[in-house]
Recover the amino acids of this structure.
């Protein structure tokens, strides 16, 4: 099998933003390794599904191994998997903390480390992290400490990796969304959530996909935290 066709890995790929990112990269003729806890193999031979907990290092190992054995290379990693728990700070449980650290931090660390090792061999690659604009501007009445703690760390790590790999052919960027209309948010919450943005509407999944695709093609952009948030990060 020819391995000249580019290959993307997408986490959190079974629904919402992740599923749309898989489709977008296939539309660009990438082969894709898609992973999430509940994902199933479909009919497209150029999409390989790997089910597993992204916070588990063994899942990262399997995803990277599948990409290399099936397609022979890894060009892009989109870290789309994430969980969001909005509670008053003192209401968070140990289970909440552990889940957020596992998915949002370990889930980025383990697979990014393994992917970066392969990208260093080919001296080329692109890593994109999905974070949140709440790390720039907290919103009164919307307590989100675990999102700020975990995704804020990923924003900082994005810049650190971009500098570490700046001369090695690997770019590292992040997309920082506002509230996006995904299955995560029940329809009855949409009016309230729209009001959290200066533009007074929620974002669409396509807005995030377009930002990722822009970063994919922007060869001179690295270390960027691209806000796609209806003005949320600018102020309220």
């Amino acid at each position: 099998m020819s391995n000249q066709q580019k290959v993307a890995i997408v986490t959190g790929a079974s629904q919402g933003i992740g599923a749309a990112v898989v489709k977008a990269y296939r539309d660009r003729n990438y082969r894709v390794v898609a992973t999430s806890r509940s994902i199933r193999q479909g009919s497209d031979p150029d999409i390989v599904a790997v089910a597993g907990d992204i916070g588990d290092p063994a899942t990262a190992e399997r995803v990277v191994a599948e990409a290399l054995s099936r397609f022979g290379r890894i060009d892009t990693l989109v870290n789309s998997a994430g969980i969001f728990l909005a509670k008053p700070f003192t209401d968070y449980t140990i289970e909440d903390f552990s889940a957020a650290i596992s998915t949002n931090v370990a889930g980025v660390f383990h697979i990014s480390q393994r992917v970066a090792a392969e990208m260093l061999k080919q001296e080329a690659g692109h890593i994109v992290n999905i974070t949140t604009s709440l790390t720039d501007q907290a919103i009164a009445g919307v307590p989100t400490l675990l999102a700020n703690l975990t995704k804020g760390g990923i924003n900082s790590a994005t810049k650190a990796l971009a500098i570490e790999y700046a001369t090695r052919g690997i770019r590292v960027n992040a997309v920082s969304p506002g509230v996006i209309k995904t299955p995560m948010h029940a329809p009855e919450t949409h009016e309230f959530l729209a009001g959290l943005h200066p533009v007074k509407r929620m974002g669409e999944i396509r807005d995030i996909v377009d930002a990722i695709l822009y970063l994919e093609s922007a060869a001179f952009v690295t270390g960027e935290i691209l806000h796609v948030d209806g003005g949320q990060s600018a102020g309220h």
